[in-house]
Specification:
It is a single chain. The chain is globular. It is built from seven helices and nine strands; from the N terminus they run H-E-H-E-H-E-H-E-H-E-E-E-E-E-H-H. The longest helix is centred in the first third of the chain and has 20 residues, at 33-52. The two termini are 65 Å apart. It is an alpha/beta fold. Strands 2-1-3-4-9-8-7-5-6 form a nine-stranded mixed sheet. The protein folds into two domains: 1-23 and 31-57, no CATH class; 73-285, Class I glutamine amidotransferase (GATase) domain (Rossmann fold, 3-Layer(aba) Sandwich), CATH 3.40.50.
C-alpha cells in the first residue's frame, strides 16, 4: 500500500483518504448516522462539482478555421502616377479604406510605393488594384514579371479609371487591363447601362444609373476579348451611336482581371452604387 497526502478527486474518480501512518481508516461496519450523513454529503458535493463543469475539467472551445473561400480578400491598392494626377485620389483611398471595414469582404493597403510590386510582397495579397494610376510607372523587368505572374497564377487585378492611361509601352499590361485610353469626349451627366447582370462582378449593380462622369473611349474596343459588364448609353451624351464599354472582366491565365472606367470625380467614389461595383469586383477577382 502506498502512503501519501490526499489529493483532490477528479470527476468520476473515488476520493483518496489520508493513508499516512497513524491515520484511522473508517470502519464500514461501525458507521454511525453522523458518519453516513457526512459520506452522503461528500458524494453530493462531488457530484455537483462534476455536473457544474469547473474550469479544470471544462474542455477548451475549439475555433474552427475560416476556409480560404470565405476569408477576406487582401488588396494592394496602388495610386502612383507618372503623368496626370486626379484630384480624386485622396477620396479613392479614403473610400476604399472605409469600404473594407464596412463590408468586411476585403482588407486594403493603399500605397504609392512602387517597390512593393515584387514577387515576395505580392505573396501576401490576393488582388492588386491600380486606381487612378497614370503614365509610364518606372517598374523594373522583374517587377513587371512579378505582376503578370501574380495574376496569371490565380490571383486578381482590378483597374479603375486611368488605369488604362498607364504603361502604354508595356503590351502585357495592356492585355491585363484590357484596353488603352484614347480620349474623354464627354464630361457630363450620362447613363450607364448594365450588361450581363448574372456576372458576379455585377452583383452590386441592379439597374441603369445616371451619373456625372468623365467618360472614356479606348484605342481599340475591348469587347471581342472581354466580357463587357457596363456600357455608356450614347443617346444620353448626345452621341449618334457607337459601342462604348465602361467596365469589363476577363480571365488572365488562371487569374481574373476587372476594369471600371468610372472614378474621375470624388463624388463618384462617394457614390454607393460605384462602391458596390468595386466591392463586388474585388470579391470576384480574388476568387472568393
Amino acid at each position: 500500500m502506498t502512503f501519501g497526502r490526499k489529493r483532490k478527486a477528479s470527476c468520476g474518480e473515488p476520493a483518496w483518504f489520508d493513508m499516512s501512518p497513524g491515520s484511522r481508516i473508517p470502519d464500514r461496519g461501525s458507521r454511525g448516522p453522523g458518519l453516513r450523513f457526512l459520506g452522503t454529503l461528500a458524494v453530493l458535493i462531488l457530484a455537483f462539482a462534476c455536473s457544474s463543469g469547473g474550469a479544470a475539467t471544462e474542455p477548451a472551445p475549439v475555433t474552427q478555421p475560416i476556409g480560404p473561400g470565405r476569408s477576406s480578400a487582401r488588396v494592394l491598392m496602388l495610386t502612383a502616377t507618372a503623368a496626370f494626377r486626379h484630384d480624386s485620389i485622396p477620396a479613392a483611398r479614403q473610400v476604399m479604406t472605409r469600404l473594407a471595414v464596412t463590408t468586411g469582404q476585403f482588407a486594403v493597403t493603399p500605397t504609392e510605393d512602387l517597390s512593393l510590386i515584387t514577387a515576395d510582397t505580392l505573396r501576401g495579397y490576393d488582388v492588386v488594384m491600380f486606381a487612378l494610376t497614370s503614365g509610364e510607372l518606372p517598374f523594373s523587368a522583374s517587377q513587371k514579371n512579378a505582376l503578370i505572374d501574380f495574376v496569371s497564377s490565380g490571383h486578381g487585378f482590378v483597374g479603375v479609371h486611368s488605369a488604362t492611361d498607364t504603361l502604354y509601352e508595356w503590351p502585357d499590361y495592356g492585355r491585363l487591363v484590357g484596353a488603352y485610353f484614347k480620349e474623354h469626349p464627354w464630361t457630363q451627366r450620362g447613363t450607364v447601362a448594365l450588361e450581363d447582370p448574372s456576372h458576379p462582378a455585377n452583383a452590386g449593380v441592379t439597374d441603369r444609373l445616371s451619373i456625372t462622369e468623365e467618360f472614356y473611349t479606348f484605342q481599340e474596343n475591348p469587347r471581342p476579348h472581354v466580357a463587357v459588364l457596363l456600357h455608356l448609353d450614347p443617346v444620353s451624351v448626345g452621341a449618334a451611336g457607337g459601342d462604348y464599354p465602361l467596365a469589363w472582366a476577363q480571365s488572365f491565365g488562371t487569374g481574373r482581371s476587372y476594369y471600371n472606367a468610372l472614378g474621375h470625380f470624388p463624388e463618384t467614389w462617394n457614390d454607393d452604387r460605384f462602391q458596390r461595383m468595386l466591392a463586388s469586383a474585388i470579391v470576384w477577382a480574388s476568387g472568393r
